[in-house]
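Q: Two folds, back to back.
A: First:
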Amino acid sequence: AACSLPLLAAEPPSRNCSEVRRLYVAKGFGQGDAPSHEINGDHLKVCPQGYTCCSQEMEEKYSQQSKHDFRIAVVELSNHLQTTFSSRYKKFDEFFKELLENAEKSLNDMFLRTYGRLYMQNSELFKDLFIELKRYYVGGNVNLEEMLNDFWARLLERMFRLVNPQYHFTDEYLECVSKYTEQLKPFGDVPRKLKLQVTRAFVAARTFAQGLAVARDVVTKVSAVNPTPQGERALLKMMYCPYCRGLVTVRPCYNYCFNVMRGCLANQGDLDTEWNNFIDSMLMVAERLEGPFNIESVMDPIDVKISDAIMNMQENSLQVSQKVFQGCGQPKTLTQGRAARSVSESGFNSRFRPYNPEERPTTAAGTSLDRLVTDVKEKLKQAKKFWSSLPGNICNDEKMAAGRVIEDECWNGSAKSRYVFAVTGNGLANQVNNPEVEVDITKPDIVIRQQIMALRVMTNKMKNAYNGNDVDFLDISDESSGEGSGSGCEFQQCSPEFEFNVTEVTGKTNKMDKNTNTSAAASIGLSQAALFFSIFFLAMQRQWR
């Protein structure tokens, strides 16, 4: 007995593993896997060997649990960002679509009250205009310049018939008339200015909404992390190996956690540069939406602008007709009976009720573009550097709490002690010397590379939209600047003449009133219907003003 005393004294005291066992069972694992006291740890493959509270089954299940915890941590931090972009995209998309619906309804109501049956007979022309605008916004292959040019050419054909009801026009003759749209400018400068406004506003609106959708999708795909086997070992060692030593309340050292997370999120770190460039380009386009490319200020008064163009046509109908007759030839005069019937059919509804501008919808989707842009700009600024900040945010998370531990009382991967290694840089290439995670820097993650490319493409499209240039969403793999409608302006050097709005229309009132006598005198030779048409429009304009 006396000889055996030194041997008994050499055996370390058996540590109670009841708390480790309780927490293990609380995770949903079987109690039978967990020993009640320390056992020999030669069976452990990742955690430090020696006396341990973990069986082989516990280490294996903790390995799966650490991978699950890591995924949840990334998803939870990314989920807020994903939800932000998803909800803002939905709100912007809803706003833009409702704005178009309101503008179409406003024009339809206004023209129906003003022109009555005459508008109903030609309403498909305006309906087609809004169909094409909606189709463009949702990503249709629509060239805005060509579409708007076609609209004005068709409107000229209809108007030319109305101001010359005593003549018979064949389809070939009207086709000849439409060729003079650009040369004669029968609608004044309205088509040119409206084309610039519509093109720039729709390009910016569509691109911005698409950018929100791309950001949403990138966050969704990149946040679905799948750690490598080497990453799984590092996660287990950091998160649950201290449990095996009975250190259930000890948190990882902050720099230790940082290295593990940067190793496991090496590919996500490479996303940061393109992500920040993308966010900056979104903020640039947001500024355009608040200023010269504001689609709300373009679409809200579009009915007044088109009506103003019709007024210009009426004022210049005699000169336009004479020049068309010179270029296309003198049309045939209708017989007296048919001419009288044509005059009767071209008249306006005399029961005219002035349009009240206060009836115009002032908002779409319960908000305004300015409020939407102000909100999303703040969210975009908060989203910058998200991916490079992700490792630190996970380590500072309440569950990890690595940022709140005392330096000498934290888990360093093998014991409760100081962590001596420096923190590695962000991104895949910097992990070559990561002391905690073995990372193959020659094999970048394919999904991440695809998202980097998607961001790069979208950034280029944003820059084009910022300059007012049309972009194509049909081929997202194409990094070209895009071709199509839109003649933009470089950065802040937009000419003030492009800022065409309702006040400019109102500014023409005095000039038009002064020209009333001149226009009337020049119109004596017109038919009775054309004269009534002109007088009616001038009277209508005064009532509007």
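A: Second:
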Amino acid sequence: ELSVVQWSSSGGLVAYSDSRSQPVNKNDGQKKKVVVLGTGWAGTSFLKDLDASMYDVQVVSPRNYFAFTPLLPSVTCGTVEARSIVEPVRNIIKKRNGEIQFWEADCLKIDAENNKIFCKANFDNNTVGSEEFSLEYDYLVVAVGAQVNTFNTPGVKENCHFLKDLEDAQRLRRTVIDCFEKAVLPDLTEEERRTNLHFVIVGGGPTGVEFAAELHDFLIEDLVNIYPTVKDLVKISVVQSGDHILNTFDERISSFAEQKFSRDGIEVQTGCRVVSVSDKEITMKMKPTGELCSIPHGLVLWSTGISTRPVVKDFMEQIGQGKRRILATNEWLRVKETENVYALGDCATIDQRKIMDDIVAIFEAADTDNSGTLTMVEFRAVVDDIIARYPQVETYLNNQHLGDLTDLLKDAMSEDKKEVDIEGFKKAIHLVDSQTTSLPATAQVAGQQGKYLAKCFNRKNQCKEHPEGPRRFAGPGGTRHFFAPFRYKHFGQFAPLGGEQAAAELPGDWVSMGHSTQWLWYSVYASKQVSWRTRMLVVSDWTRRFIFGRDSSRI
């Protein structure tokens, strides 16, 4: 059986003393220990679906709650209250079969060689006893997320706001109100008032765009009535290094968002790279001309991507992945170069195996008569295993509008023999790997990975006896993988644009924009809440905002 420990880190790497660390758990000889690091989307999804009665499960995270992060932009302006989108971890784990232990602490180091992690609790108040401890594991599930990527831009850490977790959203909300309160103080010049009310968003991705839209709604629906003397001095700017905002969406959505922002008076500056940020100015380099320009600001939100946390980076050095940018796993979410560590969510990426790496093994497996050539009948016998083992195959077929993998071989086969040799087989298949892509760092991906891994853990014993996965082409002949590899299913993505309008990219290349899409966004986000308690709180917050407006108190 298996034991699990879950862990999460806030990103700070703190020195620890091995002699002072206190071992917390010992293997009872019956259940294997699984340690899970993190209580974000991936970790929480894993815990909710895991049959904890099979394992000795422990969870480590610096936060004792799960936050519904897609609604963080709504928290920044009071559309939704912070406590409405969080669910205590202990509420979640107490509903599981079996016992799950939770420790509120940072993971400082993963000792891959000795199957141990070192942790430290960080409490503001003085506590009795040691705050450092260690945990042993049989299986480790790393779901610690990622940290904001500043690209080492001078002044970003000191002078910018971020929007990665709930504390960021609350801090941002207070600063927005502070900017307005500063602007209405007596004896300020108009230029000083304009500077205090210039809100700059660096990054034109979904987070930055949604914050800009929320801030604009907050302004025109609530703040113009509360601060009438400065309502005409407010300016919102979105700075994007690329040519368009929302460039990961369909170009129709990107164009719609830019047009709406233009109508709303939100300035979008594309082709600009930020080179430094001070407490009063942000300096940018215009890509087309190369000239530098500085603009004053009252608040800067930095929303330009993510990077690996120090504790994960240290772990990567230990296992020989030090030259990589992000932790690599195989298609079963097991960390490469390890046997008992899994990683999911934003902290890792799936290093998809290329079909050309196994092309000879696939050919030999299909060539059952050892003739040196493949017939269509022979190839069809392994088609299902190929599609299951290499997800890029299905993507390539869809993009090329091909009905079946066998269509790729028809052109390579000779007219008279209807057979193909190894060189013709390689020529027919070699373009398939061009469709190998990395999954986006989204809640949707992390949630699906957590569910998948929990299912694998729950069925570990059964699948060892009766494997469910595809055939092993590069391995012992005739054997199969225990599980089917992880396969991400995209259900679409939303981009709220303010004014009760939203854009959505849905499966099947469908694009929806406008007021009806906003109501679809409301229904989807309400249904995806982790509990009925948070679902009711979020819906009541939306209703309160419609009736009474947003709260502008600085709390």
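Q: And?
A: The longest strand covers residues 56-61.
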